[in-house]
Amino acid sequence: MLDNLPRGTIVIEDLEIGMIRHLQKQVTDRDIELFAEVSTDRNPVHLDDAYAQDTIFEGRIAHGMLTAGLISAVIGEQLPGHGTVYLGQTLKFMAPVRPGDMVRAEVEVLAIDHSKRRVTLATRCLVGDTVVLKGEAVVLAPSRKFD
Question: What element of type H or E holds 56?
């Protein structure tokens, strides 16, 4: 994985609107196989070349939630990072991710509610210049005062 900053924690007191963090990961056949095993989602569009060829995608695609998991990695490892708790996430899948694609997952701080320790984050994943997933997350951020 290629990410832009060391992993760790940015406490809510140090967060700023507009902060952005990202990581990049090439989605492999092994990633798709492992996700199918863990999630028990064995839809053949993800695993069977012949079946997937006859779908609207004309080939195998990665699970959407596998792609979304890269957003979780940015939130849990970088922004805000360790100690962050997910409260909610919206997702809109815009285009397929295929085996071999390099996915860039990005997270940006949109709003900070210091009194509730809640942070709203814009989330998106891209393959090249194509947005394949977009959404918004709300998280409980770690605090220097309480953690």
Answer: none
Per-residue pLDDT tens listing for the chain (147 residues): 565 666 789 999 999 999 999 999 999 999 999 999 999 999 999 999 999 999 999 999 999 999 999 999 999 999 999 999 999 999 999 999 999 999 999 999 999 999 999 999 999 999 999 999 999 999 999 998 765
Gap between the Cα atoms of 67 and 19, Å rounded: 22
Residue in this structure with the two tokens 């071999």, named with its chain if needed:
100
**Token pair of 132 as six digits:** 């394949």
CA 15, CA 56: separation in Å to the nearest integer? 42
Rounded to whole angstroms, the Cα distance separating 147 from 145 reads: 6
State the Cα–Cα distance between residues 143 and 50, nearest whole angstrom: 50
Would you say 66 and 27 are in contact if contact means Cβ atoms under 8 Å apart?
Answer: yes
Please spell the DSSP secondary structure of 57-104, one letter per residue. TSS----HHHHHHHHHHHHHHTSSBTT-EEEEEEEEE-S---TTPEEE
Whether the full predicted model's pTM is greater than 0.90, yes or no, is yes
**Residue 51: strand, helix, or coil:** helix
